[in-house]
Design a protein that fits this description.
By secondary structure, the protein is α/β, with parallel strands linked by helices. The protein is built from 20 helices and 8 strands. The strands form 2 sheets. The chain has a 5-stranded parallel sheet, with helices on both faces. The protein has a 3-stranded antiparallel sheet with strand order 7-6-8. The structure holds adenosine-5'-triphosphate.
């Protein structure tokens, strides 16, 4: 039952009794029956059959036995190390007390979705032999004032009760999406969220080393900058651990972990798949292994082969193949658009195109697959400009052939604008080193337009110079719907204006 309807029912019952008494109905039998049902419900709840209070349905799922160990989490070596060190505070509590160190009350895990933050919290519970109680920020959001705060109280109470019942010395409370209740508070306006957040702060302030069970709150967010400073101050969530997207070694580790229960063929090279899965999160890598197994099963084969894994990467990256049929004119426009990206990519990074395809996938009508990139954490201005030129290649090519653009470039423009913003924030534009708040919107707009216009002109010029490659590749793509990287580079070699 949705939470709001549960509260509506709770509010409705007393009103109904008062109304019935008012119109002269004898409510005593009803009251007795109600009390019996209530007592029955309470007994079932105490036996653990029904979980009510903070979390409800989702909590029951998440709270399941926290048997997970750190060894079952792929990559994330630094985060795991930092977390283990922090958890020693919970384990070595006697020493902590001796030195008068205040207890560690909150750890904040920050990082993109699907990187294993929940897994880390579960492993933390296993490592410290604590009970694990979990809830998500969105579960505390209610339209009735005070309900969210009540749920926070229940959550802490639940942790303490379970620790006592299971005879454990400590409890870990995991709150996912903490930003939902812990967002920055604006002015003196009292909102329901404020009460919930205040309750969380009060509960955390009431955690002491001497108390049994010792409580540690682990929260997760992918929007740390949104959090209220009261939440981050010393004594609350003052230990921050970054859980980043895995690097190549981490990706290979995660793939190996998820391959554990699957039959892998002799040709499978998980390191190669990890290389191709650049930028994937742990959750996406898990999905790659799962999809590959599904492809294998559908093909009635016994073992997962490398090609199943490659197909799975395409699916996770770009969505399932769709059977959307487009007319010939639309198909040609898509081919021109994709070739615009591909030619720019090959010009600025020779050898980078793996495949250009016209088959619709997810929302896209066509796509360019790039060869795996090298892991990179710092980007130069010219690298970012080249990236924008690759993104603008699609729209530039449409202009070159048709004299105008289509709606197919909106994602490319969004990507370009994001890169320009990064350049501005990094002091890589003619605005110099700036704080974005110091500059007016007009100034930002002007600089943005200057950069994008210049790069668009350079893109059009380069595409125009390579028109022969374009025309030949377009013929092949329209005929075969797929152009491999090698076929594509062959066009470059046969042309006089070769990049390499
Ligand atoms: P969100 O921010 O969306 O809540 P999260 O960071 O908490 O995501 P998890 O829920 O921990 O991510 O991970 C989701 C799933 O992805 C896991 O159940 C697991 O299958 C897989 N996964 C993610 N990261 C890893 C990892 N480092 N090692 C192994 N599996 C992982």
């Amino acid at each position: 039952m949705p939470k709001w309807s549960k509260e509506a029912v709770i509010g409705f019952i007393p009103v109904m009794f008062v109304f019935l008494a008012f119109i002269g109905v004898n409510i005593v039998p009803l009251l007795v029956a109600g009390m019996l049902i209530g007592a029955l419900f309470f007994i079932v709840k105490m036996k653990g059959g029904i979980a009510v209070g903070a979390g409800g349905e989702r909590k029951r799922k998440k709270n399941g036995p926290a048997k997970l160990t750190f060894e079952e989490i792929g990559g994330q070596d630094n985060a795991k190390q930092e977390l283990r060190e922090a958890l020693d505070f919970l384990i070595r509590h006697e020493e902590i007390k001796k030195f008068g160190i205040r207890p560690l009350k909150g750890i904040l895990l920050t990082g993109p979705p699907g990187t294993g933050k929940t897994l880390m919290a579960k492993a933390a519970a296993h490592y410290t032999n604590s009970v694990f109680v979990a809830a998500s920020g969105s579960e505390f959001v209610e339209m009735y004032v005070g309900v969210g705060a009540g749920r926070i109280r229940d959550l802490f109470k639940d942790a303490r009760t379970r620790a006592a019942k299971e005879n454990k010395q400590s409890a870990i409370i995991f709150i996912d999406e903490i930003d939902v209740i812990g967002g920055k508070r604006e002015g003196g306006q009292q909102r329901e969220y404020d009460q919930t957040l205040n309750q969380l702060l009060t509960e955390m302030d009431g955690i002491f080393t001497a108390d049994a069970p010792r409580i540690l709150v682990i929260a997760a967010t992918n929007r740390k900058e949104m959090l209220d400073s009261a939440l981050l101050r010393p004594g609350r969530f003052d230990r921050h651990i970054q859980v980043d997207l895995p690097d190549k070694k981490g990706r290979a580790h995660i793939l190996k972990l998820h391959a554990g229960n699957k039959p892998l063929g002799a040709d499978v090279d998980l390191d190669k798949i990890a290389e191709e899965a650049y930028g994937f999160s742990g959750a996406q890598l898990e999905s790659v292994m799962n999809e590959a197994a599904i492809y294998t099963m559908r093909a009635n084969e016994e073992y997962i082969l490398q090609r199943h894994l490659s197909m799975a990467i395409d699916k996770v990256m770009m969505g399932e193949r769709s059977d959307r049929e487009s007319n010939i004119e639309e198909k040609k426009r898509v081919a021109i658009h994709e070739l615009g990206h591909a030619i720019m990519a090959e010009l600025v990074r020779p050898g980078s195109v793996k495949q250009v395809a016209l088959s619709p996938r997810g929302k896209a009508l066509g796509y360019v697959r790039h060869n795996p990139q090298q892991e990179q954490y710092l980007y130069t201005k010219s690298f970012l400009e080249e990236q924008i030129m690759i993104a603008l290649g699609g729209a530039a090519a449409e202009e070159m052939y048709y004299g105008g653009r289509s709606t197919g470039s909106s994602n490319d423009f969004e990507q370009s604008l994001n890169i320009v913003e990064t350049m501005m924030k990094s002091g890589l534009t003619s605005l110099g080193i700036i704080n974005m708040n110091m500059v007016t919107t007009e100034e930002l707009m002007k600089e943005n337009n200057v950069i994008l216009e210049d790069l668009m002109n350079r893109t059009k010029f380069l595409l125009g110079q390579n028109r022969a490659i374009f025309d030949n590749s377009l013929d092949i793509l329209m005929r075969e719907e797929i152009l491999s990287g090698d076929q594509f580079r062959c066009q470059f070699r046969e042309n006089t204006l070769l990049p390499a």
